[in-house]
Amino acid sequence: MKPFLVLMLSLLSVSAHAADLVKDVRARLVDAPLVRGQFEQKKTVAGFKKPLVSKGDFLLARDQGVLWNTRTPFASTLTLTRKSLSAQQATGGAAYHLDSTKEPALAAVNELLFALLSGDVAALQKRFTVEGALVGDKGWKLELTPTDAGLARVFKHIHLEGDGYVRQVQLDETRGDSSVITFEQLAQTPPPDATEAERLGK
Which member of 37, 60, 129, 130 has the greatest number of CB atoms within 10 A? Predict the structure, then answer.
């Protein structure tokens, strides 16, 4: 009986720590309905020495969607909303559109991407075990381990770092690949222009 009680107390302690950590991280994040900025993504593929590097800009409108514009080395656009995902390779290039109401797995992916980019720790807790620590007066680091079976088949861990914003996301895949996305020049203005609003409205 005693070992069981020790185990239960230990689990309760871990749970309380995780809840406190999530609360503290959420307190440090800016409650911004819109964030835009620049990104650099370095993808390391198992078996290759040099990472694949891409750069571009993004817009996260919390109630509308995410616009992800890769500028180099090849231009492409990705539009993500709660209901769909659309992508196009450069102007006039290959394009596709997926409806999350017809693709259940897409809804989960959309939810994950929204949560990662916005630092929605409460949403991430639904699919991950959350561990981490506060860094200095403003920073924080989190390590996410999937509890969702579908995500666990793809990711070993996801690491997040930030302050008032998410500054870096690292995705460690089960097959050995890894992606590190760094965000810079983050701002809450300007609002979406006509072209951006049209993409988000689709």
Answer: 60
